[in-house]
């Protein structure tokens, strides 16, 4: 996730919130039909706050998902550990989509009933291979008839929203198996693009910004030397914007790797959105993911799963990737912060079931042996919420909100670091970093205090000072078993480097505390735009240097394909093994960054002597050691 994107996802209210907006209302008695889903929240609580309400055109094309209750759901977690933990009886006996459905999905005799019912209303439907998701599409008129809804549009805090004041209902026999209906309610989404340095290179790339910096610094090169380069592997990219293949192949050619366009394929997934996220600015995100993953794994194929940024879009993109089961590793560089889950829940727009839905979806990938990587975000530990109001104006509120889906326990979350460098940014103003540290813009604060006006007049430079690798503790997901008892997990050291008005603070005191939840990131690598990487995108100016944890997730994606090609089998979910390895001094492939000074993500710092900290996770990786120790 690029750090400008993280800041733009929540501006002036609820922009960027569609990923969480769905309506699966509570059960209620009815003569022939009952509410589909068990969610006690509904739009009716905020109807008075909606403005400019009008009915959705009967002919408008509508898309939604019926998400069914899994079978044997209580066994999901144990089974993930069974297939991903050395010493377990089912270790490496990964599921297929068919075997996942047989144990956890609904059988054809159940899903077929929904298809028959929907056909009566002239609605098209597609059942995913996992037997849990039924994708529905058709006119608003027919959706309203089939689900007893009354689809409308309105403005909520000046943002377009689709909703139904009537809860979706289905015949009792069908409704009883429904966990949630996604897509009845959705909100306009906005998203930003990648952060860029001011320097543009019209002539071509510079070697010091090449992906080879990643492969050499973190010891992936020795695996190349053994002939492991991702051959026979496919890396998957989950994204919400498209790409031009010519940008990616031009980049690969400059790197001296296979630049055939046949290496790239795109699977477009139809999904609802009030406003498309497939803009030129956002396409750079997808371009970066493909460029980096394909360069780090130079002989692997790249499969892009593209949807619109919405609740349905995210579910269907991952479900499609797991359905195909082509990619042994996946990465995503998009997300939003957990503040939205609490804000929207309190305003009766959010079902709390969405976190559960995504957990089930990602569990399928973990059972199939897919290694999934999620960028941790680029605004440091802090995220923007809504603090209060002056008239119609919403005031910002910055706090340590976790990042979704980086907070999911079945993904390996990639944080950011800054590499050693020294640079004069203005006349008489110099910044330097002596050793690799957590990526946080506080190293620019001395320059800020010496030349505050100079920095404030340079928006990009100021944005670097308020950026950093995401990391913290989730309040959506509990602490997973693989993190329990790991020194540093659920304890923290922190310094409040940024005020609530997003201003740098001088000499903040060190505080310590405890919390409980899924701690993230898990691992880190260079993500700072001031020590960043080349990007090529013709429409955005050609060659540039950029940064963000958006780069790290696809780099680990590619590195996994390299290791898979050597081992001849999928690595599976990393987390069950890497937390064990990190606690073994003889085998650990990690370099921990545990200093409490010059080592923050604008809030969390290191915890001296402990294995884990929320600024960089377990630390940076020596891939050669990881390959040798990983089973």
Automatic annotation (TrEMBL):
Region (Disordered): 263-283
Every Peptidase S53 domain range: 208-631
InterPro entries according to UniProt: Peptidase_S8/S53_dom_sf, S53_propep, Sedolisin_dom, Tripeptidyl-peptidase_I
Skewed-composition ranges (Polar residues): 271-283
Annotated source species: Lentilactobacillus farraginis DSM 18382 = JCM 14108
UniProt-recorded Gene Ontology molecular function terms: metal ion binding; serine-type endopeptidase activity; tripeptidyl-peptidase activity
Gene3D superfamilies, per database record: Peptidase S8/S53 domain
GO biological process: one example: proteolysis
Residues in the signal sequence: 1-29
PROSITE patterns from the UniProt entry: SEDOLISIN
Pfam families attached to this UniProt entry: Pro-kuma_activ
The keyword Hydrolase is annotated on this UniProt entry: yes
Protein name (database record): Peptidase S53 propeptide
Domain of life according to the entry: Bacteria
Assigned keywords, A-Z: Calcium, Hydrolase, Metal-binding, Protease, Serine protease, Signal, Zymogen
Cofactor(s) for this UniProt protein: Ca(2+)
